[in-house]
Structure formats: C-alpha cells, structure tokens
Design brief:
Elements (H helix, E strand, L loop, with lengths): L11 H10 L3 H10 L14 H9 L3 E2 L4 E2 L9 E11 L2 E12 L2 E5 L9 E2 L2 H4 L3 E6 L1
Antiparallel strand pairs: 1-7, 2-7, 3-4, 3-7, 4-5, 5-6
Helix pairs in contact: 1-2, 1-3
Length: 136
C-alpha cells in the first residue's frame, strides 16, 4: 500500500480522501479547491461534510451517519476514522485516517508527515471514537 502524506499541517481530510481514491495529494487538493474546500479551513477536521462531498464527487458512497467505533474487527473493509479527538473553544476536532482491510490484512493509512511509517498497525494507540463507512 502506498500512502499519500499530507502536504499541509491541516490537510489530513484531503490526504485521506486521496488515499481512498488513489490520487496524489496535489490532484486531490486541486479538486478540493475547485469545490471551495481548503486545508486551511479548520472545518475540514471538525465537520464530516467536506470529506463526504469529496468522496461523493468521485462517485463513492459513504454511510449517512458517523457510526460508533466498537472494534477493529467489526469495521468495514474501508472506513474513514476520526482519531486524536480534542476540543478548542468548545468545538470538537480530530485527525482523519483511513482504515483498509485487504486479503485479510488490516492497516490504517495515516497521512501525518511526522510519522516514521504512514502504514500503522498500532491499533491500541489510535483510539477512534467513530467512523464513516466507505464503499470503495
């Protein structure tokens, strides 16, 4: 698996969609910007509407709601996960990552540029709160 690494500090949503669609960060950023979606907008990592719009624009369906995370085993084969939850001025924020399961192997594609490996299997460390199922 190749992982798209975010090129902007706040570009995890754009990079996560690129990881699902098999696009480069630059390609996904250009599409997002043309749709009025910018990494600098903190809503990109505090609202699910933007990643849903990007995926829908590419013809990818997602679950209508955020679903509570119960276990890694019960996740669908592709999901957007929210990790690193925190609040700023009473507003929820998180970091977007992609869960993928292929040929029985599960991994999380984490676009954060500071990681030693962007393919993560340290499942106990991530602690997602919820996910969006992705039909990819």
């Amino acid at each position: 698996m190749n992982v798209v690494v975010q090129e902007e500090t706040t570009g995890c949503g754009i990079a996560s969609v690129a990881n699902i669609l098999g696009k480069t960060y630059a390609e996904m950023k250009a599409t997002a910007n043309a749709m009025g979606i910018y990494a600098e907008d903190t809503s990109l990592w505090s609202d699910t509407h933007y990643v849903r719009r990007l995926l829908s624009h590419a013809g990818i369906k997602t679950s209508a709601d955020e679903l509570p995370f119960e276990s890694w085993e019960t996740l669908p084969n592709t999901a957007l996960l929210s990790i690193k939850h925190h609040q700023e001025n009473g507003k929820d924020f998180w970091h977007w990552v992609v869960f993928k399961r292929a040929q029985g192997e599960a991994a999380v594609l984490d676009s954060a540029s500071y990681l030693p490996s962007n393919i993560r299997k340290d499942f106990d460390d991530m602690q997602p709160k919820w996910f969006i199922a992705v039909d990819a």
